[in-house]
Every structure is written in structure tokens, then in C-alpha cells.
Hints:
Blueprint: H1 3-21, H2 25-56, H3 59-71, H4 73-88, H5 98-112
Helix pairs in contact: 1-2, 2-4, 3-4
Amino acid sequence: MADPELEAIRQRRMQELMAQHGTGKQGNQQIPEQENGQEDAKREADERRQMMLSQILSSQARERIARIALVKPEKARGVEDVILRAAQMGQIVEKVSEERLIALLEQINSQTTKQTKVTIQRRRGVDDD
Length: 129
């Protein structure tokens, strides 16, 4: 290889590394724009989700889910997903009351509770005759 070719390869590699680490001019401008776009899309999707839930759930049911979300956010998100899917399929025709939400939570709990099993293994000691 000739020197100009080697230098061109080095320059390309240096630009790639700078873009990966965010130190290049192009890298700094594109990364925040992409992050802002992703954040905006995520925020907009969350707003749509909350609007749909406010139409489906009664105020007491929304409060209960909010309290659940304080303790177990992943569980609250799962319950919201189940409710939204049911509404999209047409299974929910009226607002979900707190009592119906409690019944749904109990049903989900019974399906997801893990059975714990304790096994005691007794070792034979030296003194056992």
C-alpha cells in the first residue's frame, strides 16, 4: 500500500471512532437529534396510552392503578396492557370500575403467582447409628 492510501484509511477509521464516541462534529449533532426524536415519540405514545386509559377506566380504578404503580410499576403496566388489549378487541364496552379492576388483578395474581417448594434434605451425621 502506498502512503496516501494508508493515510486515507487512518482518517476514515479516526472519523468512525470519533462518531462512535460522540466527539466528532457530525456525531454530536446527530445523536441528540435522534435522542430527542425518540424521547418525543415515547412521550407522545405515553400520552396516547394515558388518554385511552382515562376513557376506559373509572376515576377510582385509575387511582388504584396509580397506587399499584408506586409499588410495582411493571405489574401496573401489565394490567394496563391487558385492559387496553381487551378494549381494542371490543371486550370492554363500558368504563372499568374499581371492583372489576380488583377482580382482574386477582385473576392475574392467581395466574402469575409462583409456587414455592421447600425441600428438606437431612444429612446423616457421624453419630447416627
